[in-house]
Protein backbone atom coordinates (compact mmCIF):
# COMPACT_ATOMS: atom_id res chain seq x y z
CA UNK A 1 0.00 0.00 0.00
CA UNK A 2 2.71 2.42 0.96
CA UNK A 3 4.54 2.02 -2.37
CA UNK A 4 1.37 2.81 -4.31
CA UNK A 5 0.80 5.94 -2.23
CA UNK A 6 4.36 7.10 -2.81
CA UNK A 7 4.16 6.59 -6.57
CA UNK A 8 0.88 8.51 -6.68
CA UNK A 9 2.58 11.39 -4.84
CA UNK A 10 5.56 11.23 -7.20
CA UNK A 11 3.21 11.45 -10.16
CA UNK A 12 1.40 14.42 -8.61
CA UNK A 13 4.70 16.20 -7.92
CA UNK A 14 5.86 15.70 -11.51
CA UNK A 15 2.65 17.09 -12.99
CA UNK A 16 2.77 20.47 -11.22
CA UNK A 17 4.29 22.30 -14.17
CA UNK A 18 2.66 25.68 -14.85
CA UNK A 19 -0.49 25.67 -16.98
CA UNK A 20 -0.14 26.44 -20.67
CA UNK A 21 -2.42 29.09 -22.13
CA UNK A 22 -3.39 29.62 -25.77
CA UNK A 23 -0.52 30.92 -27.94
CA UNK A 24 1.74 30.54 -24.90
CA UNK A 25 0.54 33.80 -23.32
CA UNK A 26 1.11 34.43 -19.61
CA UNK A 27 -2.51 34.18 -18.45
CA UNK A 28 -5.87 32.85 -19.57
CA UNK A 29 -8.18 35.21 -21.43
CA UNK A 30 -11.63 35.91 -20.04
CA UNK A 31 -14.71 34.48 -21.72
CA UNK A 32 -15.61 36.12 -25.06
CA UNK A 33 -11.97 37.10 -25.73
CA UNK A 34 -9.41 35.76 -28.21
CA UNK A 35 -5.83 35.08 -27.07
CA UNK A 36 -3.08 36.42 -29.29
CA UNK A 37 0.70 36.67 -29.28
CA UNK A 38 2.91 38.21 -31.91
CA UNK A 39 6.49 39.24 -32.59
CA UNK A 40 8.07 41.44 -35.22
CA UNK A 41 10.87 40.10 -37.38
CA UNK A 42 14.47 40.00 -36.15
CA UNK A 43 16.59 42.14 -38.49
CA UNK A 44 16.30 40.58 -41.97
CA UNK A 45 16.91 37.05 -40.68
CA UNK A 46 13.94 35.74 -38.67
CA UNK A 47 10.41 36.52 -39.84
CA UNK A 48 7.57 37.73 -37.65
CA UNK A 49 5.16 35.37 -35.91
CA UNK A 50 1.44 35.89 -35.38
CA UNK A 51 -0.66 33.51 -33.26
CA UNK A 52 -4.41 33.76 -32.55
CA UNK A 53 -6.35 31.32 -30.37
CA UNK A 54 -3.48 28.79 -30.39
CA UNK A 55 -3.33 28.88 -34.18
CA UNK A 56 -0.06 30.14 -35.68
CA UNK A 57 -1.32 32.25 -38.58
CA UNK A 58 2.03 33.50 -39.89
CA UNK A 59 5.65 32.48 -39.26
CA UNK A 60 8.91 31.64 -40.94
CA UNK A 61 8.18 27.96 -40.30
CA UNK A 62 4.88 28.26 -42.21
CA UNK A 63 6.85 30.06 -44.96
CA UNK A 64 4.15 32.72 -45.32
CA UNK A 65 5.99 35.84 -44.10
CA UNK A 66 8.03 38.34 -46.04
CA UNK A 67 9.87 41.62 -46.01
CA UNK A 68 7.61 44.57 -45.22
CA UNK A 69 4.30 44.51 -43.36
CA UNK A 70 2.82 41.09 -42.58
CA UNK A 71 -0.95 41.08 -42.06
CA UNK A 72 -3.36 38.48 -40.69
CA UNK A 73 -7.12 39.02 -40.76
CA UNK A 74 -9.60 37.17 -38.54
CA UNK A 75 -13.36 37.23 -38.07
CA UNK A 76 -14.09 39.38 -34.99
CA UNK A 77 -16.99 37.15 -33.90
CA UNK A 78 -15.54 33.66 -34.46
CA UNK A 79 -11.76 34.17 -34.56
CA UNK A 80 -11.68 32.29 -37.88
CA UNK A 81 -8.72 33.20 -40.10
CA UNK A 82 -9.81 35.16 -43.16
CA UNK A 83 -6.50 35.96 -44.86
CA UNK A 84 -2.73 36.27 -44.42
CA UNK A 85 -0.55 38.41 -46.69
CA UNK A 86 2.65 40.41 -46.66
CA UNK A 87 3.44 43.60 -48.52
CA UNK A 88 7.01 44.57 -49.40
CA UNK A 89 7.41 48.18 -48.29
CA UNK A 90 11.06 48.39 -49.40
CA UNK A 91 11.11 47.14 -52.99
CA UNK A 92 7.40 46.73 -53.62
CA UNK A 93 4.50 48.99 -54.52
CA UNK A 94 2.16 50.46 -51.88
CA UNK A 95 -0.92 50.39 -54.19
CA UNK A 96 -1.82 46.68 -53.62
CA UNK A 97 -1.45 47.23 -49.86
CA UNK A 98 -3.83 50.22 -49.98
CA UNK A 99 -6.38 48.18 -51.97
CA UNK A 100 -6.07 45.34 -49.44
CA UNK A 101 -6.60 47.75 -46.51
CA UNK A 102 -9.66 49.26 -48.20
CA UNK A 103 -11.17 45.79 -48.73
CA UNK A 104 -11.14 44.82 -45.03
CA UNK A 105 -14.70 44.33 -43.76
CA UNK A 106 -16.14 45.89 -40.57
CA UNK A 107 -15.70 43.67 -37.53
CA UNK A 108 -12.44 42.15 -38.78
CA UNK A 109 -9.50 41.71 -36.39
CA UNK A 110 -6.30 42.99 -38.04
CA UNK A 111 -2.86 41.83 -36.80
CA UNK A 112 0.28 43.38 -38.32
CA UNK A 113 3.99 42.89 -37.81
CA UNK A 114 7.02 44.30 -39.61
CA UNK A 115 9.97 42.38 -40.99
CA UNK A 116 13.17 44.07 -42.21
CA UNK A 117 11.63 47.36 -43.39
CA UNK A 118 7.92 48.11 -43.16
CA UNK A 119 7.89 51.86 -43.81
CA UNK A 120 9.89 53.09 -46.81
CA UNK A 121 7.03 52.85 -49.35
CA UNK A 122 4.22 53.75 -46.93
CA UNK A 123 2.43 56.89 -48.03
CA UNK A 124 -0.08 59.14 -46.23
CA UNK A 125 -3.09 57.17 -47.52
CA UNK A 126 -1.75 53.81 -46.30
CA UNK A 127 -0.84 55.35 -42.92
CA UNK A 128 -4.32 56.91 -42.60
CA UNK A 129 -6.02 53.57 -43.38
CA UNK A 130 -3.91 51.80 -40.72
CA UNK A 131 -4.63 54.62 -38.23
CA UNK A 132 -8.36 54.03 -38.88
CA UNK A 133 -7.81 50.44 -37.64
CA UNK A 134 -6.71 51.89 -34.27
CA UNK A 135 -2.96 52.48 -34.70
CA UNK A 136 -1.27 55.50 -33.16
CA UNK A 137 2.35 54.61 -34.05
CA UNK A 138 1.85 54.20 -37.80
CA UNK A 139 2.28 57.95 -38.37
CA UNK A 140 5.86 57.79 -37.00
CA UNK A 141 6.86 54.34 -38.35
CA UNK A 142 10.22 54.77 -40.06
CA UNK A 143 12.90 52.86 -41.98
CA UNK A 144 13.62 49.47 -40.32
CA UNK A 145 11.58 50.25 -37.19
CA UNK A 146 10.09 47.20 -35.50
CA UNK A 147 6.32 47.35 -34.99
CA UNK A 148 3.49 45.02 -34.03
CA UNK A 149 -0.15 46.04 -33.95
CA UNK A 150 -3.55 44.50 -33.37
CA UNK A 151 -6.62 46.53 -34.23
CA UNK A 152 -9.92 46.19 -35.99
CA UNK A 153 -11.99 47.52 -38.85
CA UNK A 154 -14.71 49.75 -37.43
CA UNK A 155 -12.91 50.26 -34.10
CA UNK A 156 -14.11 53.49 -32.48
CA UNK A 157 -11.09 54.00 -30.22
CA UNK A 158 -7.33 53.69 -30.44
CA UNK A 159 -6.11 50.12 -29.96
CA UNK A 160 -4.25 49.34 -26.73
CA UNK A 161 -2.37 46.61 -28.61
CA UNK A 162 0.64 48.23 -30.25
CA UNK A 163 4.42 48.16 -29.74
CA UNK A 164 6.98 50.20 -31.68
CA UNK A 165 10.77 50.44 -31.42
CA UNK A 166 12.57 53.05 -33.52
CA UNK A 167 15.59 52.12 -35.61
CA UNK A 168 18.44 53.95 -33.86
CA UNK A 169 22.09 53.10 -34.57
CA UNK A 170 23.03 54.02 -30.97
CA UNK A 171 20.55 51.62 -29.37
CA UNK A 172 19.96 48.90 -32.01
CA UNK A 173 20.39 45.33 -30.80
CA UNK A 174 21.38 44.04 -34.24
CA UNK A 175 23.61 45.91 -36.64
CA UNK A 176 21.18 48.15 -38.52
CA UNK A 177 18.01 46.93 -36.76
CA UNK A 178 16.36 47.38 -33.35
CA UNK A 179 15.43 44.43 -31.14
CA UNK A 180 12.35 42.31 -31.75
CA UNK A 181 9.09 43.63 -30.30
CA UNK A 182 6.65 41.13 -28.82
CA UNK A 183 3.12 41.56 -27.60
CA UNK A 184 0.37 39.38 -26.19
CA UNK A 185 -3.13 39.95 -24.97
CA UNK A 186 -6.83 39.21 -25.11
CA UNK A 187 -8.94 40.71 -27.90
CA UNK A 188 -12.62 41.25 -27.05
CA UNK A 189 -14.90 39.19 -29.25
CA UNK A 190 -17.14 41.34 -31.46
CA UNK A 191 -20.69 41.35 -30.11
CA UNK A 192 -23.74 41.77 -32.34
Write structural notes for this entry.
The structure is a single chain. With 192 residues, the protein is an alpha+beta fold. It contains 3 helices and 9 strands; from the N terminus they run H-E-E-E-E-E-H-E-H-E-E-E. Strands 5-4-6-7-8 form a 5-stranded antiparallel beta sheet, covered by helices on one side. The protein has a 4-stranded antiparallel beta sheet with strand order 3-2-1-9, with no helix packed on it. It starts with a helix and ends with a strand.
Number of strands: 9
What count of domains describes the coordinates? 1
Q: Which spans of ≥5 residues are poorly predicted at pLDDT below 50?
A: 1-5
What's the helix count? Answer: 3
Global structural class: alpha+beta
Give a quick account of the main beta sheet: strands, pairing sense, barrel closure: 5 strands, antiparallel
Beta content: 25-35%
User: Order of SSEs, N→C?
Assistant: HEEEEEHEHEEE
Helix content bin: 10-25%
State the separation between the terminal residues, measured CA to CA.
58 Å
> Globular, elongated, flat, extended or rod-shaped: what is the shape?
globular
- What's the mean pLDDT score? 88
- The whole-angstrom Rg is 19 Å
Q: Kindly report the spatial arrangement of strands forming the biggest sheet.
A: 5-4-6-7-8
Amino acid sequence: MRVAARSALDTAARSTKPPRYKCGISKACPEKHFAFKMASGAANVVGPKICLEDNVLMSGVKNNVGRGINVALANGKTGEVLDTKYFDMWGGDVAPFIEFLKSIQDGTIVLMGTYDDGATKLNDEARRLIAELGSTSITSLGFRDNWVFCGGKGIKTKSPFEQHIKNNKDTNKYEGWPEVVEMEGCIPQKQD
